[in-house]
């Protein structure tokens, strides 16, 4: 039996006995042992498989440029990141923008505003729409990343990725959503249009906030694996799968307001299945990246 056929046999066996992903975890561990981490291979792995929770923060930090590819630099770089974090936090406390009682996600927002030169003159100033997006993502990230320094840096770089790398792509996602929903279930899209709901769907929640506040973090992190590693298009297929999953409910609603309200507060117990099906749908329409360890 060749090495590839042995591996395929083991993978099938592991899946049958409930150890799906054992081979993938080993493959990732091999990639993470390299002296110089191959970011391209890590991206490809993240596109194909969910990241094991024990390695997620590390992989995200490397892919978002918080850590360099070289292992020996990680400790020193994170020491600098922590010093910068503490300096900015201290400055905000000195000017009384935050205190020990300030919610952590709001602290991250004020730090981000200060570092990007957008700190308002007073904490009482109303938040801009972009601040609300940052806050939603930071709140979700808090549930995924335990260390506050890691959480701030990952949130900051994640938001920067949305604002730079995906800046031109994100406004195109509603159109792509309609396109793929039409391919999967044209009747459902027709119903949305007849109710005048299509333009009023919660696109900001889905695409600008990347489902933060819509899906529970345990499901959301599998979607964000794909966003961090290079694909914002996964968001389209999560939205499509939400509509397909709740088709009967949506078809029974006959006003744009009712449909939008329901989609903003979908039942949480279906989220894992929705994300799994969305990833399958994404691979079906966009192909599966080839990963070689």
Protein model, in words:
The structure is a single chain. With 293 residues, the protein is mainly α. The protein has 2 domains: 19-161, Orthogonal Bundle (Helicase, Ruva Protein, domain 3), CATH 1.10.8; 168-284, Cyclin A, domain 1 (Orthogonal Bundle). It contains 15 helices and no strands. It has helices at residues 3-16, 22-32, 39-48, 53-63, 74-94, 104-115, 129-144, 148-163, 173-194, 203-208, 217-228, 234-245, 247-252, 256-264, 271-286. Helix 9 packs parallel to helix 12 and helix 11 (217-228) runs parallel beside helix 15. The radius of gyration is 21 Å and the shape is globular. The model is unreliable at 1-19 (pLDDT under 50). InterPro entries: Rab-GAP-TBC_dom, Rab-GAP_TBC_sf, TBC1D7, TBC1D7_dom2. This is TBC1 domain family member 7. It is found in: Cytoplasm, Cytosol; Cytoplasmic vesicle; Lysosome membrane. Its main location: cytoplasm.
Q: At the fourth CATH level, what is the homologous superfamily of the largest domain?
A: Ypt/Rab-GAP domain of gyp1p, domain 2
Q: Helix tally? A: 15
What integer is the average pLDDT? 91
User: What is the helix/strand order?
Assistant: HHHHHHHHHHHHHHH
Strand content: under 5%
- Describe the main β-sheet briefly: none
> How far apart are the first and last residues' alpha carbons, in Å?
20 Å
- Report low-confidence residues grouped into runs of 5 or more: 1-19
Number of strands: 0
CATH topology of the largest domain: Helicase, Ruva Protein, domain 3
> What's the CATH class label of the largest domain?
Mainly Alpha
Silhouette: globular
So, CATH architecture of the largest domain? Orthogonal Bundle
What count of structural domains?
A: 2
Label the structural class: mainly alpha
Helix content: 55-70%
Return Rg in Å: 21 Å
């Amino acid at each position: 039996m060749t090495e590839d056929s042995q591996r395929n046999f083991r993978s099938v066996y592991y899946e049958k006995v409930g150890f799906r992903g054992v081979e993938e975890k080993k493959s990732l561990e091999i990639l993470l042992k390299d002296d110089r981490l191959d970011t391209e291979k890590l991206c490809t792995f993240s596109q194909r498989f969910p990241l094991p929770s024990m390695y997620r923060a590390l992989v995200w930090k490397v892919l978002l440029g918080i850590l360099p590819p070289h292992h020996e630099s990680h400790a020193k770089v994170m020491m600098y990141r922590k010093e910068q974090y503490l300096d900015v936090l201290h400055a905000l406390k000195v000017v009384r923008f935050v205190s020990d009682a300030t919610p952590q996600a709001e602290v991250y927002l004020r730090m981000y505003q200060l570092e990007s030169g957008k700190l308002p003159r007073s904490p009482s100033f109303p938040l801009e729409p972009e601040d609300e997006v940052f806050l939603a993502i930071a709140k979700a990230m808090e549930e995924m990343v335990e260390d506050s320094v890691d959480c701030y840096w990952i949130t900051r770089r994640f938001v920067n990725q949305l604002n730079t790398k995906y800046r031109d792509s994100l406004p195109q996602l509603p159109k792509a959503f309609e396109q793929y929903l039409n391919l999967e279930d044209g009747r459902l899209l027709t119903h949305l249009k007849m109710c005048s709901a299509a333009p009023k769907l919660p696109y900001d929640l889905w695409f600008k906030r990347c489902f933060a506040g819509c899906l529970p973090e345990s499901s959301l992190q599998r979607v964000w694996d794909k966003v961090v590693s290079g694909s914002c298009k996964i968001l389209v297929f999560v939205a499509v799968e939400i509509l397909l999953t709740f088709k009967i409910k949506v078809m029974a609603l006959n006003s744009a307001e009712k449909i939008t309200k329901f989609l903003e507060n979908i039942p949480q117990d279906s989220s894992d299945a929705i994300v799994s099906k969305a990833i399958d749908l994404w691979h079906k329409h966009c192909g599966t990246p080839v990963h070689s360890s």
